[in-house]
UniProtKB/TrEMBL annotation, chain B:
<dbReference type="InterPro" id="IPR050086">
    <property type="entry name" value="MetN_ABC_transporter-like"/>
</dbReference>
<keyword id="KW-0547">Nucleotide-binding</keyword>
<dbReference type="InterPro" id="IPR003593">
    <property type="entry name" value="AAA+_ATPase"/>
</dbReference>
<protein>
    <submittedName>
        <fullName>Phosphonate-transporting ATPase</fullName>
    </submittedName>
</protein>
<keyword id="KW-0813">Transport</keyword>
<dbReference type="Pfam" id="PF00005">
    <property type="entry name" value="ABC_tran"/>
</dbReference>
<dbReference type="InterPro" id="IPR017871">
    <property type="entry name" value="ABC_transporter-like_CS"/>
</dbReference>
<keyword id="KW-0472">Membrane</keyword>
<dbReference type="GO" id="GO:0005524">
    <property type="term" value="F:ATP binding"/>
</dbReference>
<dbReference type="InterPro" id="IPR030679">
    <property type="entry name" value="ABC_ATPase_HisP-typ"/>
</dbReference>
<keyword id="KW-0029">Amino-acid transport</keyword>
<keyword id="KW-1003">Cell membrane</keyword>
<dbReference type="GO" id="GO:0005886">
    <property type="term" value="C:plasma membrane"/>
</dbReference>
<dbReference type="InterPro" id="IPR027417">
    <property type="entry name" value="P-loop_NTPase"/>
</dbReference>
<dbReference type="InterPro" id="IPR003439">
    <property type="entry name" value="ABC_transporter-like_ATP-bd"/>
</dbReference>
<dbReference type="GO" id="GO:0016887">
    <property type="term" value="F:ATP hydrolysis activity"/>
</dbReference>
<comment type="similarity">
    <text>Belongs to the ABC transporter superfamily.</text>
</comment>
Length: 491, 248
């Protein structure tokens, strides 16, 4: 099943440490208060569930009655749970790595997504009873079906699995001589399999079945692993100490298990997957890309404007004689440049989110703007330094104030000098804004992954996205060059 | 006319770390006077000039501008007085991002709060006066060095200064352009402008200056009316300097 990758793990640890500090600093009152988890949900009348809809048949996106919706077995489970609780269900999409953080920080009440209730995870969140037991299988290329019939045939081969998952560990432990290759996304792993970078892919049975149904070049074999159900089952995660909510949900889970409802849920999911894969041309999914482009452009445009304003302010602060202003600017720039944008995005969304609830899109814009401001500040500083000292002296000899000298004499020349560097920053901002996909902002990268998961086509969506990014940055470069030419003219 | 004191310098000293660049300088510039400051390289001439409008802050001593000691003032207060002392630099220092007209307009509009119309009218008059009336809409980079320096003079004049400070205004020019700049300066002097000129143009000093101040080693070694100075220098340093120039 799905577990986060190593790098994300580190990023997340940093974030959780920061979040903990925030708790200690500002909100020490929470402590071990009475369990009002169920009452909170009932009072607001909605159950907010976090999920990562790129994992059919558990959860994925499909067009239902003309609207793109998150559906799948897990969603049917949650619909039943919400109905039994008598509340409405609200779905929040985000990256899988962010699910547990989302419930820890109160962005969501519960999280689903084929999450195993492992002992490690039980330390940070609570789980409902298991609602589904997925078996373990291997995906292989159909051309190899004659060669590989069971697990013992895979000895010494290259086996793929999601990094840090059960499948990964099992392959290491139980297949002698196997070289286990880890990747973050199952879509990428399937691609690796089809291009023969790996010989077999350890994956959960329902997912394997879904792939085999939708891709004629793939086949599957049973793993034959004997496993404890606590490690392979899927359960609903909730914040630590929400026993009341868990107990209420367990009633629904018990019904689901007794009546084998998941069979029906899987069958329904299969129908939608068929709909999804009836037409897998990229044109059919063009509205996904359009939405992605809209969000990417929105985030980039707003962030460029705020980034430039903030960067100018910070650069001027750096030149200030006031030691406090200078120190603040230097500290800000050093800190922001010294931490990954990914962590900053997660910090704004989850960390600051504890105090003020900021929606994902706004969080993304804030994080990218604050980040860009630090880089722009350094570019502008170098630009101001590049203007000859005689210019300041001439302005000063005419009695111009410092502010006017900056505004009319220094900055216009500085901007001309740094224009290419500034252009680079804008272009990299457009590309790097893709990191907001981890908190579920439906930018171009996020949408691409949705399309890849829905269509079982690993490469084409990436290719389309590459082209779209190129076209955007190419056009931007032309615009920037146009203005550079204009400024050169004015010399 | 020649009795009102514009600038008075007393015990002016300037040190960079342990290096003494200016030592105990005194001097008076009266209204309408043209002072030429000459001397060998490294004598401290430019530093002295830049101390007059406090582009360089003196280490000690006084610079009285119309009776007010600039050294004792805060930078913001100095700024208000500095606009009344025009300055022309060796490297022109025109603002390359603006047209000639905009260069002339900027300070009158922003500092003196002239209306745009008034500022344009004044700028155009000054450009005509330095013979560059046609170049109002040109950018500095398209002008020759001599033209740029004349624009720089006009820009300083646009603030109606009490005194004009020239810091080697012809040193960065090609020889054939020196004349046009000196001519503008001479006309200015003839019209009664108070001027302090750091220069290597001995011809100009001889012809235009009311007084020549000879600087060497951070001191004003000698000051005199130009004909007397060039004909009969009193100090050894001045004699060496003049013989070298004539020899060359």
């Amino acid at each position: 099943m799905r577990v986060k990758g190593l790098f994300n793990k580190i990023a997340q640890s940093v974030l959780i440490a920061a979040v903990t500090l925030l708790f200690l600093g500002g909100l020490a009152t929470t402590g071990h208060a009475a369990d009002d988890s169920l009452k909170t949900v009932e009072d607001k009348g909605t159950l907010v569930v976090a999920t990562s809809p790129d994992y059919p048949p558990y959860e994925f996106q499909a067009t239902v009655h003309g609207k793109s919706k998150v559906i799948g077995m897990d969603m049917d489970v949650m619909k039943k749970v919400a109905k039994d609780l008598g509340v409405k269900l609200e779905i929040k999409s985000m990256n899988f790595d962010s699910l547990l953080v989302a419930i820890q920080t109160g962005k969501a009440d519960v999280a689903v997504g084929g999450i195993n209730p492992t002992a490690e995870r039980r330390q940070s969140v609570d789980f409902s009873d298991i609602y589904y037991l997925g078996g373990q299988s291997f995906l292989i290329n159909k051309t190899d079906a004659g060669k590989y019939k069971n697990r013992s045939d895979l000895k010494g081969l290259k086996i793929g699995a999601q990094t840090g998952t059960l499948q990964y560990n099992l392959a290491k432990q139980k297949i002698p001589g196997a070289q286990v290759k880890g990747m973050d996304k199952s879509t990428d792993l399937v691609l690796a399999l089809k291009t023969h970078k790996i010989d077999a892919l350890g994956i959960e049975t329902p997912s394997a079945e879904a792939y085999v149904k939708n891709d004629k070049s793939l086949a599957m074999i049973n793993s034959g692993y004997k496993l404890d159900k606590n490690e392979v089952g899927a359960a609903i995660a909730a914040k630590k100490g929400s026993d009341a909510l868990i107990n209420a949900m367990n009633k629904s889970v018990a019904t689901i298990n007794k009546d084998n409802l998941t069979d029906q849920y899987l069958a329904d999911a299969g129908k939608y997957m068929k709909v999804n894969t009836q037409n897998t041309t990229m044109w059919h999914y063009s509205n996904y890309f359009v939405t992605g482009v809209e969000y990417t452009l929105l985030i980039s445009a707003v962030s460029v404007v705020i980034g430039v304003l903030l960067g100018t302010l910070l650069a001027l602060m750096r030149f200030s004689k006031n030691k406090l202003l200078h120190g603040l600017a230097v500290a800000y720039i050093e800190f922001v440049r010294g931490t990954p944008l990914m962590v900053q995005v997660m910090f704004v969304y989850f960390g600051i989110g504890i105090i003020v609830n900021i929606p994902a899109l706004l969080s993304g814009i804030i994080a990218v703007s604050l980040n860009s401001g630090a880089y722009v500040a350094e570019i502008i500083r170098s630009g101001i330094d590049s203007v000859a000292k005689g210019q300041t002296e001439a302005a000063s000899s005419l009695g111009l104030s410092k502010g006017d000298t900056m505004r009319f004499v220094i900055l216009p020349q500085a901007i001309r000098n740094i224009w290419p560097a500034l252009g680079n920053e804008f272009i990299s901002l457009i590309k790097e804004s893709s990191i907001v996909s981890i908190i579920g902002v439906t930018d171009l990268i996020y949408q691409t992954n949705i399309v890849r998961a829905d269509t079982y086509r690993g490469v084409m969506p990436i290719f389309i996205t590459m082209l779209i990014y190129f076209v955007i940055t190419f056009l931007l470069t032309r615009v920037l060059n146009h203005y550079e030419g204009k400024m050169k003219h004015a010399r | 006319m020649q009795d009102k004191t514009i600038i008075q310098v007393e015990h002016l000293e300037k040190k960079y770390g342990d290096t003494e660049v200016l030592k105990e300088i005194d001097g008076t510039v009266k209204s309408g006077q043209v002072i030429c400051v000459i001397g060998p390289s490294g004598a401290g001439k430019s530093t002295f000039l830049r101390c007059l409008n406090l582009l360089e802050r003196p280490t000690s001593g006084q610079v009285l501008f119309e009776g007010t000691d600039l050294v004792s003032l805060k930078e913001s207060a100095v700024m208000n007085l500095r606009e009344r002392m025009g300055m022309v630099f060796q490297n022109f220092n025109l603002f390359p991002n603006m047209t000639v007209l905009e260069n002339l307009k900027l300070a009158p509009v922003r500092v003196k709060h002239l209306s745009d119309g008034e500022a344009v009218k004044k700028a155009q008059e000054l450009l005509d006066r330095v013979g560059l009336g046609e170049k109002a809409d040109a950018y500095p980079a398209s002008l020759s060095g001599g033209q740029q320096q004349r624009v720089a003079i006009a820009r300083a004049l646009a603030m109606d200064p009490e005194v004009m400070l020239f810091d080697e205004p012809t040193s960065a020019l090609d020889p054939e352009m020196v004349g046009e700049v000196l001519q503008v300066m001479q006309e200015l002097a003839n019209e009664g402008m108070t001027m302090v000129v750091v220069t290597h143009e001995m011809g100009f000093a001889k012809e235009v200056a009311d007084e020549v101040w000879f600087m060497a080693d951070g001191y004003i070694q000698e000051r005199n009316e130009p004909n007397a100075f060039f004909a009969d220098p009193q100090t050894q340093r001045a004699q060496d300097f003049i013989s070298k120039i004539i020899g060359a």
